[in-house]
Specification:
The complex is a heterodimer of chains A (115) and B (115). With 115 residues, chain A is mostly beta strands. Helix content of chain A is 0%, strand content 53%. Chain B has 115 residues and is an all-beta fold. In chain B, strands 2, 4, 5, 6, 9, 10 and 11 form a seven-stranded mixed sheet that branches. The termini of chain B are far apart. The chains are: A mainly beta (115), B mainly beta (115).
Chain lengths: 115, 115
């Protein structure tokens, strides 16, 4: 079974600062992918970044990077130079690469950027 | 490329009534997910289809919820009879299976209020 844990219900960060959102996971699958999604107050789920379990390098997409530590089963999202538009809910999710490819989400972190 | 379409966007019903939600996934996406997202929580997978077959419905309350995906394209999720605790946003997502780094794409969701 897959499980995603996000231990930070809410975070407040000053504009232009960097922020790290924590995510730990548990799975018995040998190969899997980790995803981060952003959900603004409007409700849509926006894909941000992907990390494969066998990727040698940490994923980066613009201001988003993923600090992947496989041995510790963590996949933290780092947002550099935060902006007011980054205020939203952020969800970590994982999907196994084989079998039923079930996509499991964590409980989310509400990020608020302070001007 | 058209995104995942869901309708209706909002629905208010009384408890014990029935309701149906519709989802049209991205063309060519064989995997379709229905999630329930209660306010302040992460999305919870209700059912996952691969083409028109059910892959996972372990968290679907089968005494009141049903879903189908005829012809492997559109899908309908039904609740009958609805309870107050069914108030939530129902999200439909689709993805292309067999490609590990492919994210799931989400619709705008249907916000259900049961009174």
């Amino acid at each position: 079974a897959q499980k995603i844990t996000q231990t930070q219900p809410g975070m407040f960060v000053q504009e232009k600062e960097a922020v790290t959102l924590d995510c730990t996971y548990d799975t018995s699958d040998p190969s899997y992918g980790l995803f981060w999604y952003k959900q603004p107050s409007s409700g849509e789920m926006i894909f941000l970044i992907y990390q494969g379990s066998y990727d040698q390098q940490n994923a980066t997409e613009g201001r988003y990077s993923l600090n992947f530590q496989k041995a510790r089963k963590s996949a933290n999202l780092v947002i550099s130079a935060s902006q007011l538009g980054d205020s939203a809910m952020y969800f970590c999710a994982m999907k196994s690469d084989f079998g039923n490819e079930k996509l499991t989400f964590g409980t989310g972190t509400r990020l608020t950027i302070i001007p | 490329e058209a995104g995942v379409a869901q309708s209706p966007r909002y629905k208010i019903i009384e408890k014990r009534q029935s309701v149906a939600f519709w989802c049209n996934p991205i063309s060519g996406h064989a995997t379709l997910y229905w999630y329930q997202q209660i306010l302040g929580q992460g999305p919870k997978l209700l059912i996952q289809f691969q083409n028109n077959g059910v892959v996972d419905d372990s968290q679907l309350p089968k005494d009141r919820f049903s879903a189908e995906r005829l012809k492997g394209v559109d899908s309908t999720l039904k609740i009958q009879p609805a309870k107050l605790e069914d108030s939530a946003v129902y999200l439909c997502a689709s993805s292309s299976p067999g490609t590990p780094n492919t994210e799931a794409f989400f619709g705008q969701g249907t916000r259900l209020t049961v009174v």
